[in-house]
Amino acid sequence: MLRQFMFIVFIALLASCSNEGQPKANAQEDKQSDQSITLYTHRHYDTDKAIFAQFEEETGIKVNVVKANADELIQKMESEGDQSPADLLITVDAGRLVRAKNKGLLQTINSDILTQSIPAHLRDTEGHWFGLTKRARVIVYDKDKVNTEDLSTYEALTESKWNNKILIRSSGNIYNQSLLASIIANDGKEKAKEWAAGVVENFARSPKGNDRDQVKGILAGEGEIAIINTYYLGKLINSKDSTEIKAGNAVSVFFPNQEDRGTHINISGIGVSRYAPHKENAVKFIEYLASKEVQEIFAEANYEYPVNPSAAPSDLLNSWGEFKEDKLPLSKLGELNKEAVIIFDEVKWQ
Amino acid sequence: MQFRIKHLKRDINQWSFYTMAIGLFVAIPVFAIVIYLFDGVGEMWRHIVNYFLLDYIQNSLFLLLGTGFLTFFLGISSAWIVSNYDFPFRRLIEWLLFLPLAIPSYIVAYAYVGLLGNGGSLITYLQSIGFSIQKVEMMNIFGLIWVLSFSLFPYVYASTRTVFKSHPNSIRETAYLLGASNRRYFFSVALPLASPAIIGGLFLVFMEVLNDYGAAKYYGINTFTTGIFRTWTALEDLQSAIYLSALLVVLVFLINSLVNWLRGKRSYAIKVGQQSSTHSRRKSLNGSKRIIYPLLLAIPIVFGLLLPIAQLSYWAMLTLDTMLNAELFWIALQSISVAFGAAFFILITALVLIFFSKWNYLNSVHFIKKVATIGYVIPGAIIGIGIIRSSQTVINFFSDTFHLKIGYLFYGSSVILIYAYVFRFLAVAYNPIEANTLKLGKYLAESSYLLGSSKIKTLFKIELPLLRGTIISAFLLVFIDILKELPLTLILKPYNLQTLAVKAYEYADDERVAEAALPALVLIFTITLMMMLLNYGNKKLTSFGKPANKQMK
Fold it and tell me: Which of A5, A69, A177 lies closest to B456 in CB terms?
């Protein structure tokens, strides 16, 4: 009786394994032998999918996509080692690409097309990764209450006139970490710590919610200025929710540090995996994404700035005006990320 | 100890081996993680201890306490009323009370801010009818307790309801004959008798609370789990993150021992078999109960289900033109099939572990069961690391010794994902089934053995049919959990697999909550459908089962 029972369980196990696994696995193997690439990405935008489909159509190279958080993807690639199916890694910040590079997960790509279409400070010096889109971390302010002349730099946010007026999300967020990393790189560690402590002093409320919530906080009068990424404002203005539209229209964009180093920017970027089974196709894919035409669609859909200077930003972005960007090599953001988090903890920036 | 060793030979039997083998197989990721522990703490450990450990522990304990109280109250009051009183729409309400579980907590967290935050839809409505209210601040620890409690109380409700329902009339009649009031019966008889199930349900709530990441992160509350992620991703110290997870596991073991201590050595066996009379004992509401009890039922349904769903529906309407397409239907189908398969394996594993270890006399085997059910408390992402690492060992072994590339089997199919689900959610099925197996007692099984039936025959003919209600609700809980699961699914799923939870997450992660609403609603709808099917199936089985029982007699 027991044997029969065990036998049934065993058969059930086998059956389910073969049902669940084999056909897909075989299919995948077939795919791997012909034209395809496997992409690990942290980007979740619908337009990406349309662009991948277009790439497939134009080149016949199929794009397999694994979407998860960059940290998990990096860990996955690390564990998978030389049997990893990943050809490419896309992250939504430079820091993670630097981390992947430091862990030896990426490889050098020499492509004239890429060096020509992407400015030097937006790609790795050794060609391990390339920026695809830019996002600026700006100050948005209440149109009614704040005078533009009062705003100048990130550093000036610690002034006492902003006491109880600054809205910003928690320090667990990578964009805040990158911002502080850029301040460490520009002003030094001591100054950066003073800055962070000064901003904490001026918080309108303890950090919570996401970038959109900060803007809604301005609309509700909880604070007067907020630090957010540009594309979230684009999303608010184009939202279908009436409150979000109202919030988006209640504020204006201010690009800080125009008189000195420029506004802090970050990128969403891509690198070729060290053990990429389809390196050639992978490079083709990056070159495709960096081309002028694709850049315009790729960036516009998410209200981001294209990295390719020949591609034009969308009308909305143009309406905020041109700005000078901080040319700090983005690899610095990755190198200083941890230091930034330590400072955040020390000044109790939640 | 010596005493035990002396009896080792006597106590050990084939079941001990089977239990151990299965338990160890399920527990492989634990060992992979333990191996990490040998590398020592990471370089950021001091920083963690100095700056946030205490804060994180305090917050987590406060959360546990708060959600513990609230879910206890919500779960038990609703379970008591629906299983003891008759009122209009009772059956419907019984089902509705399960449904808050169908909405992922982080979605509920977003929905509440959408309702009560700045310019929230409920706030706007209240303002339009003359209330001068700006907003209700949800984004603090009390808001988090509120959100988690109303989305998790069904765990307590589900396990308690089953027990309340199975209390035979004889006990109640005895209590009344002895002069006990209704209240006294509830506090002195029904509640203590249900305590293993209540504790089992609360345990699940605690695990979910400890594991919550999305809601806590959005509300800006630092908890143990957000700390683990901060350590791993921001402080770039996986090693210390794994140590924090280990600390979390220790915390859970403490809670678990507390539970066992509370449970004591008491036996909760009730003679069952008079279930036919359960229906007749439902009373109708009278007096003040006619107002209070419906109110008690309305609270969890309104705040746990109706309000979040109303907000989600509002968002879904806004985004209907872009979000509604055939793909969503296929995604739903894929989610269901994976969840169904995995839930099936989890149930089999749980039953096998419970009964095999029941048939064995070696006490130390119970430790293995504990280890095998620990997956519920380890953050999903850390489990993911453990599983990837252990499967990598297997893959390397095959490629080194046999020159076989089997990587695609692991990364290109759902096998590893389903294994991960079994490890992650075993406790969800295991705890309530074990509690109810305890309640069955040994009489029936032993009588059956005396009459010459084998263990397996007894299991299939007597014990499993008696546990059917519990098994079905356990299946449902596991099924729901898998449908909602995120971190493991994200990292271990083959890339041609899409699930509703992943779809919803992708939008929410991108701060597009409104777009996440429709996949979330489909998720809720799927779970509702599943519950209705199971309920229908259960009834069919019951009607089939009756003549069979008679024949057996």
Answer: A5
